[in-house]
Task: inverse folding
């Protein structure tokens, strides 16, 4: 039997949280090219990406 919509969304949130935690941990080792790639990935991954990008100061706008 498949997952309910609520369970699917909870799983997606958990995965996003884990990916963001990994990003924050690895951020000091990233060069400019890798940071740009992560910014694009964040924009595809979550609707609140612009706030996260601003908080982490990934782009100088």
Result:
């Amino acid at each position: 039997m498949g997952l309910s919509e609520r369970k699917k969304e909870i799983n997606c949130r958990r995965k996003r949280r884990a990916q963001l935690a990994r990003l924050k941990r690895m951020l000091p080792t990233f060069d400019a090219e890798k940071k740009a790639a992560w910014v694009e990935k964040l924009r595809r991954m979550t609707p609140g990406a612009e706030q996260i990008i601003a908080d982490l100061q990934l782009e100088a706008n």
About this structure: The helical segments are 5-26, 32-45, 49-56. Residues 1 and 7 are 12 Å apart (CA to CA). DSSP finds three helices and no strands in the chain.
